[in-house]
Amino acid sequence: MADSASPIGIANLPNQRHKIVAKRGAAFTIMVAGESGLGKTTFINTLFSTTIKNYADHRRRHQKQIDKTVEIEITKAELEEKFFKVRLTVIDTPGFGDYVNNRDSWQPIIEFLDDQHESYMLQEQQPRRGERIDLRVHACLYFIRPTGHGLKPLDIEVMKRLSSRVNLIPVIAKADTLSPNDLLKFKSRIRNIIQAQGIKIYSPPLEEDDESALRHAQSLITSMPFAVIGSEKDVTTPDGRSVKGRQYAWGVAEVENEEHCDFKKLRAVLIRAHMLDLIHTTEENHYEAYRAQQMETRKFGEARPRKLDNPKFKEEEEALRKRFTEQVKVEEQRFRAWEQKLIAERDRLNKDLETSHATIKQLETEIEGMQGSVARSGRR
Ligand SMILES: Nc1nc2c(ncn2[C@@H]2O[C@H](COP(=O)(O)OP(=O)(O)OP(=O)(O)O)[C@@H](O)[C@H]2O)c(=O)[nH]1
Ligand SMILES: [Mg+2]
User: Fold this and answer.
1) Ligand whose nearest atom lies closest to the CA of 75
2) Any domain includes 337
3) Which residue intervals define the domain Septin-type G in the entry (predicted)?
4) Please, which of 96, 324, 339, 356 could form a disulfide with 105 given CB 3.0 to 4.6 Å?
């Protein structure tokens, strides 16, 4: 499936590492998250169907139902990339945002990520470290609703929490619903918000010594956040090709056409060019950060405190309470200002009324005066 034009990450590795990796293959775990109904499950099916050889034979094992996802689901598959085996695990999560209490709906995803670090850390502390069970997530794709406007406060909050735990890759869902122009504007808006909010997203490494890799990474960065189209179906284009895509009256939105969306770019980042970087940064940055933080707050070998006693959890609670109080204050101020404006308006209206009354009075006097003079001239 690798086309020769795109750089193959594995082949670019220093020899030593290349050998080790090629012999053992790699275990790679991807997670999808985001609001409900954005096509997360469909994306997973699309990824499997475009990367697994003989997918038709394995369809039943890998294809996921695209009913609403209601719990965290784990699917495994084996890919072969240029004589190199990848044990791919994909974690599908229930979409959030359609409950009254949004907080509860994404909390399990954060806990899942922490639990994997925790479980790996405990296994590392065992005297015999045999084959470990490792479900640490190497890349988390965060699906953004293609509104064309920006990010919701909920997106920002969840992305912040994800980005401190995992390599976060934001993606724009259902790219076929935005025009190319609107898509470009939307991308730049989202990049600005991400920067302004200080959300750390995954960025392909810029290797200065390899010109073509450098150019490739730069072009990836300018396309971020990747816009994707997902589809379970093969459809026929007006020029007679059978492709994965979505059929419309105007034609076909093709999954693997770079003019239509960034699916191929995203897949190349995940499966080809940057898989090892994603694995290493997970180990070196995110896992290390978790380990260091846990070491600070508890003694060696001690179990993780229950959620309620967890200082981090308390800290979050505290931050939330503070934000709530601040918001109430802001609302109160807004209300005061509004009240002031109303009072001023009332005074102005009262004044107007007074002036009108005075005018009416004066007019009445004038009328009386005129009536008086008419009566007088009648009598004459
Ligand atoms: N137009 C368009 N529709 C899509 C795309 N991907 C998925 N859909 C449709 O969106 C609907 C929801 O898709 P799912 O894959 O179930 O969405 P989900 O994000 O897994 O939803 P939850 O499991 O509820 O979180 C389905 O009707 C899909 O056919 C896309 O790229 N473009
Ligand atoms: Mg789903």
Assistant:
1) 2
2) yes
3) 24-297
4) 96
Q: Which pLDDT value is given to residue 7?
A: 44
Rounded (10°) CA dihedral 250, 255, 256, 258: 70
Instruction: Give the distance (Å) from ligand 1 centre to CA of residue 43.
Output: 8
Q: What is the DSSP-derived secondary structure letter of residue 35? A: B
Question: In terms of Cα–Cα distance, which of 141, 140, 194 is closest to 171?
Answer: 141
Task: Tell me, yes or no, whether 126 and 241 share the same domain.
Answer: yes
From 243, 274, 304, the end of a domain falls on 304
Domain that holds residue 372: 306-380
Residue 272 beta carbon below 6 angstroms from any ligand 1 atom: no
pLDDT of residue 281: 93
**Residue 345 and residue 290 share a domain:** no
The C-alpha atoms of residue 176 and residue 370 are separated, in whole angstroms, by 78
The residue out of 304, 322, 351 marking a domain boundary is 304
| Residue 249 in this model has a pLDDT that exceeds 80 | yes
pLDDT digits (tens, 9 = 90+) for 359-380: 999 999 999 998 888 888 776 6
- Mean pLDDT score, 197-223: 89
Distance from Cα 68 to the centre of ligand 2, integer Å: 5
User: Of all atoms in ligand 1, which is nearest to the CA of residue 230?
Assistant: 31
> Is residue 5 over pLDDT 50?
no
Total domains present in the chain: 2
Evaluate the omega torsion of the peptide bond into residue 225 and state whether it is cis, within 30 degrees of 0. yes
Amino acid at 235: V
User: Are 293 and 224 spatial neighbours (Cβ–Cβ below 8 Å)?
Assistant: no
Q: Do 102 and 219 have their domain in common?
A: yes
| Cβ-based neighbour number of residue 148 at 10 Å | 14
Residue 20 domain flag: yes
For residues 198 and 262, membership in a common domain is answered with: yes
The per-residue pLDDT for range 92-143, each reduced to its tens digit, is 998 987 665 666 678 889 999 999 999 888 888 877 766 778 899 999 999 9
